[in-house]
Structure formats: C-alpha cells, structure tokens
Write a structure and sequence with these properties.
By secondary structure, the protein is an alpha+beta fold. The protein is built from three helices and four strands; from the N terminus they run H-E-E-H-E-E-H. It has one domain.
C-alpha cells in the first residue's frame, strides 16, 4: 500500500501511543481533528483531509466514540522509523 510521508508521520505518532481527538458540528459529520503525541504535543501538519484518507483506508479507528487510534492494519502498514527527537 502506498502511504505518503505525512501519513507515515501520523501513523508513527499513533503507533507510539498518540491519539486523534475529533469534534463534530451540529450533525454527525466530523468538523475538526487534532492529532496529539503521547507527550501531549500537537502534530502540526495533521488536517481533516489527512484524517479522512487514513480513515478511508482503515488505518485508524475509533471504538464507541473514543479518540481515534491506529488500527491493526495501520500498525502493519507503518514503516520502522528511528526516533527523530535527537540527542541534543
């Protein structure tokens, strides 16, 4: 499966324990999303379009209204990546 660099970055954050909080408007449609790392930082380049692509490909999932997390298929699809925090 072809996964873009932005999708890989988001999946990697989710695989390390991150989550996606979503907000709904007046109806059932999701109007805004925010991707958080496990430390509570916000992933800057994550937007609604990227969220919809990940959800359509079933790489992320939500169970009973909880925040979106990486699915089993998403864990299998994400490539290994070195820790990008650096040493200093």
């Amino acid at each position: 499966m072809n996964i873009s660099r932005r999708e890989q970055r988001a999946l990697h954050v989710l695989a390390l324990g991150g989550r996606i909080l979503h907000e709904r408007g007046d109806g059932p449609r999701i109007t805004s999303v925010t991707c958080f790392t496990r430390e509570g930082l916000v992933l800057a380049d994550f937007d609604l379009k990227l969220f919809q692509r990940l959800r359509r490909r079933r790489l992320i999932e939500s169970r009973s209204g909880s925040p979106y997390r990486i699915s089993r298929l998403g864990r299998l699809s994400v490539r290994a990546q070195t820790n990008n925090q650096g040493d200093g």
